[in-house]
Recover the amino acids of this structure.
């Protein structure tokens, strides 16, 4: 049977993400050196962690601690909400679609994803099971839009290319500090030392400078875990149907390594009382829950208001 022809958008995505004929092989000796250097820096930070404390660093916290430290370490209570659960439900639906026979409608995949998640013994499962009809309809509608845009934009994913959604990665296996990530979409796997893995973050909004940093953190994490870097990372902007892809190089991994150690060091220092957390004003002050008690943030917001 003939494969269906790709739409222009699917073809553009394929061209942006496909493997070139030249194998991507980053010198294994340079990778080993990078891992050794990172591990040395990491262990120096671990040594400063008191016995009763544990730290988990993901891409969000890394970006936040390198921004305003005060806001990053302020206690906050996590609560599920439709925009937060949207990613997991739609990625689960996409995963179901990869192995679903025929061409299922996005809403069928989303309904199945919601049904399966609501049966799981997890905080998300409990939250989904208890949704009001209005919130359930909202989640269903938003997830269906996201899955539809994904199917329109991506060439059909071949199960032989090992596609995975919501793929969890963490490093190291034990100790008081864990670096963790959950990758929206992973395609491919290494062959020996050849980098073949593609890491994709699916984005609903507009491009932001930290999106590349997030993916570089994932590339570093994958390198620490698998000892072979991914070949490419990409943010895929679902609303625009556009890809921002970057080839992974040793230079990018080194820069991700320095950024991660800087952020981790800052997190441990301010959380263990080795030094006070510093404020750093930015446009994020406008939405910061601490802004009313924060003199720096208040002054910054007032200065913005005077400009307009
Ligand atoms: S208002 Fe701004 S400077 Fe103050 S804590 Fe919040 S983000 Fe930091």
């Amino acid at each position: 049977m003939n494969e269906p022809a790709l739409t222009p958008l699917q073809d553009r995505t394929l061209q942006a993400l496909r493997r070139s004929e030249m194998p991507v092989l980053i010198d294994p000796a340079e990778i080993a050196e990078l891992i050794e250097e990172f591990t040395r820096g990491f262990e120096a930070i671990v040594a400063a962690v008191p016995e009763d404390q544990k730290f988990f660093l993901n891409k969000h916290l890394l970006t936040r601690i390198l921004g305003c430290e005060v806001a990053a370490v302020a206690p906050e209570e996590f609560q599920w909400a439709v925009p937060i659960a949207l990613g997991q439900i739609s990625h689960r639906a996409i995963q179901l679609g990869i192995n679903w026979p025929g061409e299922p409608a996005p809403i069928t995949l989303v309904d199945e994803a919601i049904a399966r998640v609501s049966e799981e013994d997890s905080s998300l499962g409990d939250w989904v099971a208890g949704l009001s009809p209005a919130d359930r309809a909202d989640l269903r509608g938003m997830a269906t839009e996201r899955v539809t845009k994904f199917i329109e934009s991506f060439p059909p994913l071949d199960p032989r290319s090992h596609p995975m959604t919501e793929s969890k990665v963490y490093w190291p296996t034990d100790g008081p500090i864990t670096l963790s990530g959950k990758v929206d979409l992973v395609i491919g796997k290494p062959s020996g030392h050849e980098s073949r893995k593609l890491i994709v973050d699916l984005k609903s909004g507009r491009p932001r400078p930290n999106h590349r940093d997030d993916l570089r953190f994932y590339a570093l994490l994958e390198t620490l875990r698998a000892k072979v870097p991914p070949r490419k990372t990409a943010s895929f902007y679902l609303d625009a149907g556009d890809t921002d892809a970057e080839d992974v190089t040793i230079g990018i991994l080194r820069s991700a390594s320095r950024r991660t150690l800087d952020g981790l060091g800052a997190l441990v220092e301010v959380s263990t009382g080795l030094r006070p957390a510093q404020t750093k004003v930015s446009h994020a002050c406008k939405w910061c829950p601490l802004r009313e008690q924060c003199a720096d943030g208040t002054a910054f917001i007032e200065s913005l208001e005077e400009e307009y």
Observations:
- The chain is about 50% helix and 15% strand.
- The mean pLDDT is 94.
- Residues 8-67+160-271 form one domain.
- The radius of gyration is 21 Å.
